[in-house]
Every structure is written in C-alpha cells, then in structure tokens.
Design goal:
With 537 residues, this protein is an alpha/beta fold. It folds into two domains: 2-126 and 138-191, no CATH class; 252-531, Ribonuclease Z/Hydroxyacylglutathione hydrolase-like (Metallo-beta-lactamase, Chain A, 4-Layer Sandwich). It is 49% helix and 19% strand. It has helices at residues 2-9, 14-31, 36-54, 60-74, 82-104, 110-133, 140-167, 169-195, 208-224, 230-245, 287-298, 314-325, 349-360, 419-431, 456-462, 482-491, 498-501; strands spanning 135-136, 201-202, 252-256, 262-268, 274-281, 303-308, 333-340, 364-368, 373-376, 379-385, 401-406, 409-413, 442-444, 466-469, 494-497, 504-509, 512-520, 528-536. A nine-stranded mixed β-sheet has the order 8-7-6-5-4-3-16-17-18. It has a seven-stranded mixed β-sheet with strand order 9-10-11-12-13-14-15. It has a two-stranded antiparallel ribbon with strand order 1-2. Strand 5 (274-281), helix 11 (287-298) and strand 6 (303-308) form a beta-alpha-beta unit.
C-alpha cells in the first residue's frame, strides 16, 4: 500500500499503478518462497486494488473466501496444512469475530481494540495450535501488542537498508542497525516470556468433537452477541476453552513408541498419572526432540510423575537425558527418576550421569529393587528384579522388571533382561505364586526381540496373550531374531512389533483390551493406516 500511494503521488495512471504494485508484490512473494500466507495476502491485496480500479467496494470476507478457493483449487490438501489454517483462521478472527464483539460488547478505546485484536487472532487459531503443536504460548497474546505495531518500522527499515546497501554496502549495514535493535528487542521479550511461570500451556491434541464444539460456541457468540452481557460472553469463552482442552479418563493406556532401535513406553490411567519406562534410541538422532516430547505433548503431558530407567544403555536413556536437561527450559517436568538398585559394579558412568542430571534438574532419584511397588489408582506396579544390591557388570542382566496389574489385566515390562537376570526371574516365577504371573495378558519382549533372551522356560512360565517388540526397521542386529519369533508363535500369543506397526497403543477399559497401531502398505509411497484389534479379558 505504501508503494501504491507513492506511485499515486507520482500521478501514474491508475491501471499502470495497480499493475506495477501487484507486480512488485508478486516479486516479493517469489523472493520469500510464496508460502500459503503470502499467497493469501497477495490475492487479497490484488482484489483490493482491482476493486479500486473498477470502482467497487472491497469486502474482507469475500476476498479471503476467494483466496481460499484459489489456493484449494490449486492444492486441495492445503485444507490440512497448518499454514493455511493459521493464516485464514487469523483473518476470519479479525473479519468475523472481532467486529461482532467490538460493536456490541466492548468500547472503542485504542487499548481495548489492541487487546481484542490479539484475543480474536489467538481464539480463532487456538484449535490449529493445539491440533498441530499440542501446546499454546499464552503470553503470545501480549507479545503481539508489542510486535505487530512495530512491524511497519521493521519493514520500512528493511527496505531502506536494501536501497542503501545497493548504493554502498556500509551504508546498508548502518541503515539496518535500527532494525537489528528492534529485532533484538523482540528476542529479549520472547526470552522474558519464556522465563515466566506457565509460559507454555500443554493441552494435548483435541478430538474432532472438541474442535467442533469449540467452533460451535464461538459461532454462537458471533450470532447472538447483541443479546449477550459481558459476563455471559466470558462464560461462553471459558466454556469453549474447557470443551477444547478437557481430557476425559479412558482406562489404562500403554503406548510403545516407535523410537527405532530402542525402548520407550508411556503409561497413563484413570487416576491421571503419567509414567515413562525408558526413553532412547541408537539409530534415530534427537529422539527426545522429534518423537518422545512431541508424543507426550500430543497426550497432554506437561509433567511426568515417574520415569523408570530399566538399565543405563544408550538406546534406553539418551532421550531421558534430554528430558532431564530441558525440564526447566520449556520441556516436560519430571517428578521422580527411578533407577535399578544394584551394587557399585553395575553403576557405570551413564548411571551416575543420570543421577547428576536429575540432581541439577531438581528431580528426586529413587532406587527400585525386588519387592518395591508403585501404586497409581487402580494400577499397581511391582518390581520383580533386580535384587537389592545385586553386584554385576552385565547391565542387561540387571534390567528392572516391572509387573503391572489393572483389574484382570496384567503386564510384564522386561527392559533388556537376559542371561543370569532372566534365569533369576524365571526361577522366581516357577518357585512361587507370590506375583501371580502365570498367563499374563501383555509381555514387553526383552532386548528388542534378541534370540538370546526370552527363552522357552521364561515363556512357559508367563504364557503371554499379547507380545510387543520394540526394534528399528532394518536394524543391523537383525532384531527381532527368527528363533525368538518362533518361540513366541509356539505360545499362541499375538505378536506386534514397531517395525511393522509403528507406535503400538494398548487400551484397557471395562474388561476389554484394544490394540492400536499403523500398518505400512507395500506401495512405492509409504502410507500409514490406523488399525484396531480388540480382546476380551
């Protein structure tokens, strides 16, 4: 609009002015990659100038509708693109929600208008935030009050720096310095917000019915705003937010994440506890950043009550290291870290590093040995192995073994249990009914399906109905080994592995067990299709 005004003052013919201005904006779009937000702005801007040319009025919602149709005709899958939904959602917030509440509910002061604009954008894009990122930065509403008004100076300063640099490069650097200071100020503001309490609101991914309910209430506010009082308006907003973010109890959930060649199991239940058993991978870099933390946020987890480390191998702990390091800088807080209670011989450098990281993060460290129990509502986790102070250098052998009970549903988590450790657990099961482990429902198969673990005697003792294996696709170890799969098949259990199924979720509710996963088709392009299989206890 600045260029359009400049050309107008130069008394260029209106048609020439509009063609030049639209052309310049197109060049800017090409330079910046012509993302969906830029495409929307370009189409809407073009329609505004064409309206001036033909003597018609410009309507914001008509323009945004035309822009959406043009974008979707070119690429229908934009309807699922976060950039598309963010950009068009923000404009709808400004064009539909803001005028309605501003006209009938709120005054016209400058501060009130600024606050309402930020609230309208945030409210209209909130479902997109939560569906794609599972979290929302509440202070961003206030940051926009500072950032948006100053963008005019950033853009003008950038253009000035371009022209100055074209004449003489040091002049360009000098002209860009005020913009640099302004952007540095933005960065300081963001850092300040990150240092404040509750700077990130982790709610998880809402279900479709929640998004529809939220949008329905907002639509009702827009339609009926002239009959609403301010109090009733805010009550409706709070009701919409509650519907969008509430997470209803859904029985016991056990998810074996697809972390490649490694282990990471997430547990939650009706009582609202959140627990992680191991968290690492040997073939996926930054597994905490790109898989573990996003999944936990997807489930609405901002605080882990417990993190259990079965043994300190890298493919079980490198993600937990990151969780502990970032717990107080925008990550997911950890309540208690549980380590196996073994002798000094088994407490290697990685074991002590976890203790140190937990201490630095202010996380309590406790030690598990046979006989200890964790009680979380209806869920009981009993430690079967290792014996307190067992002194061995074989970290796999002293892997923590946890036995979970939830009504009639039972699970055995085994880490990388093998060798002497597996012999001890098998002997304990065979010699005593103390734990009631015969005919368990679910077995987490030890050591990623290695043929050296989960032998016939062990399987005969536990007789699982369902077996889960965590291993990477085409891993160098050949896991799961053919002999181990044959032993599992001979027990008659259902076998599921992350290699074929991706992340595997087991849900238990009302005496029914449901296993969910993803299957890869054999197409040239991998397609994941969700599947569910149910069992009665």
């Amino acid at each position: 609009m600045g260029m359009y005004g400049a050309f107008r003052r130069m008394r260029l013919p209106k048609a020439v002015n509009i063609i030049l201005t639209i052309g310049l904006m197109y060049c800017y779009g090409v330079m910046t990659g012509m993302g969906i937000s830029m495409l929307r702005a370009y189409i809407m801007f073009g329609l505004q100038l064409i309206a001036k040319l033909v003597g018609r009025t410009y309507d914001l919602m008509t323009a945004v509708t035309v822009a959406a149709l043009v974008a979707l005709i070119g690429q229908p899958l934009y309807i699922q693109h976060s950039g598309f939904l963010f950009s068009f959602g923000a404009v709808c917030g400004i064009g539909i929600f803001l005028p309605a509440v501003q006209e009938n509910l709120f005054g016209g002061s400058r501060l009130e208008k600024a606050l309402l604009s930020g609230a309208a954008i945030s409210l209209s894009t909130l479902p997109v935030y939560l569906c794609f990122y599972y979290e929302f930065p509440p202070y961003s509403v206030l940051l926009n009050l500072v950032v948006i008004p100053c963008m005019t100076f950033v853009l003008a300063g950038g253009i000035l720096a371009l022209f100055a640099a074209a004449c003489y490069l040091p002049f360009g650097a000098l002209a860009a310095y005020p913009v640099h200071l302004l952007l540095a100020f933005y960065k300081k503001c963001c850092g300040l917000c990150l240092s404040l309490p509750d700077h990130t609101w982790i709610t998880g991914c809402p279900a479709l019915w929640q998004v529809i309910g939220f949008l329905g209430i907002v639509a009702g506010i827009i339609a009926l705003n002239r009959w609403l009082s301010r109090l009733l308006f805010w009550q409706c907003i709070l009701c919409a937010l509650f519907i969008l973010t509430v997470r209803l109890p859904d029985g016991l959930q056990i998810t074996m994440m697809d972390v490649g060649q490694g282990d990471c199991i997430y547990l939650t239940g009706d009582s609202g506890f959140h627990m992680l058993i191991d968290g690492g991978s040997s073939d996926k870099s930054d597994v905490a950043k790109y898989q573990i933390m996003p999944y936990l946020k997807h489930e609405g987890v901002s605080y882990l009550d417990a993190v259990v480390v079965t043994h300190p191998d890298s493919d079980h702990i490198n993600g937990i290291r990151v969780l502990l390091e970032e717990a107080d800088t925008g990550g997911i807080a950890v309540g208690t870290l549980y380590l196996p209670d073994v002798g000094d011989a088994g407490r290697n450098e990685a074991y002590h590093e976890l203790e140190r990281l937990a201490g630095e993060a202010g996380v309590e460290v406790r030690y598990l040995s046979a006989g200890n129990a964790l009680h979380c509502g209806e869920v009981m986790l009993t430690c079967m192995h290792p014996q307190k102070g067992w002194n061995t250098e074989e970290v796999n052998a002293y892997s923590t073994v946890l036995y979970l009970t939830y009504g009639d549903f039972t699970t055995l988590f085994t880490g990388d249990l093998e060798g002497a450790g597996e012999d001890k657990v098998t002997a304990a099961i065979q010699a005593s009914d103390e734990y009631g482990l015969h005919n368990i429902t679910l077995l987490k198969v030890a050591h990623h399906g290695s043929g050296n673990s989960t032998d016939e005697a062990f399987l005969e003792a536990v007789s699982p109905q369902i077996s889960l294996i965590s291993s990477g696709r085409n891993n160098r170890y050949g896991h799961p080994h053919a002999e181990l799969l044959e032993r599992l098949e001979n027990t008659g259990c259902h076998i599921y592995g992350t290699q074929e199924c991706g992340a595997i979720t087991v849900r238990v509710r009302g005496g029914r067990v449901r296993v969910e996963g993803y299957i890869d088709t054999e197409d040239t392009q991998t397609v994941r299709k969700r599947w569910k299989i149910g069992f009665d206890l």
